[in-house]
Design brief:
This is SWIM-type domain-containing protein. This protein is an alpha+beta fold and 198 residues long. The chain is 29% helix and 19% strand. The longest helix has 21 residues, at 39-59.
């Protein structure tokens, strides 16, 4: 059964056996795990999730995980983001924390049901790629929706009933098809127009 694994599985498994695979504590935001061979990879995803949440909460105190919707492959967060500017800043902060860049996939400038709604793809996706080395066919997505507070939405969304309504819903993919901490990947990160200071 193991002999039929793709070569990338063999590479990951061999590195782990030789103790050269990045350890969880030394690489808290290593999110390049795609192949699920055993519980080792599942545990790494959980550590990644906790790291991301804790880092974001230092910047956004009103940011909590929606554990009912989160999975090992995706974090769902609720925040008190109010508008497009705050949503874009959230994306920039997350990019800095996770060593990732994002390109717009879907955006409605005049949404009817929401205040704001936008989805990005990892910049190592195949979308708009002229340079082959940037195309890892990564499927990771980041989406931010800012909900309207109405009688109807408050009935179906408990987070809108808080004293500080958490109208922002953020969905973050944890799985990437590439290493996010390698020197080559870091060199390909696009520099933002603004430098974010923590």
């Amino acid at each position: 059964m193991i002999s039929k694994l793709p070569w990338r599985c063999w590479h990951t498994l061999a590195a782990w056996r030789q103790n050269t695979f990045p350890r969880i504590r030394s690489a808290p935001y290593h999110i390049a795990v795609v192949w699920k061979l055993d519980k080792m990879e599942f545990q790494q995803e959980i550590i990644q999730k906790n790291y991301i949440v804790s880092q974001l909460q230092e910047i956004y105190p009103y940011c909590i995980e929606d554990t009912d919707k989160s999975t090992p492959e995706q974090i769902v967060l609720r925040t008190n983001l109010q508008n497009e500017e705050e949503a874009e800043n959230f994306k920039k902060h997350y990019s800095a924390i996770s060593n990732t860049n994002w390109i717009v996939y879907n955006y409605n400038p005049n949404p009817q049901k929401f205040v704001f709604s936008k989805t990005w793809l990892c910049h190592h996706s195949k979308r708009h790629k002229r340079i082959a080395k940037r195309n890892a066919d990564c499927k990771a997505k980041l989406s931010i929706v800012i909900k309207k507070i109405t009688k109807a939405t408050k009935k179906t969304d408990k987070y809108l009933k808080y004293d500080m309504p958490l109208v922002g819903e953020v969905k973050i993919s944890l799985l990437h098809t590439h290493n996010t901490t390698s020197a080559e990947t870091l060199r390909m990160l696009r520099v933002n127009d603004e430098v974010i200071y923590f």
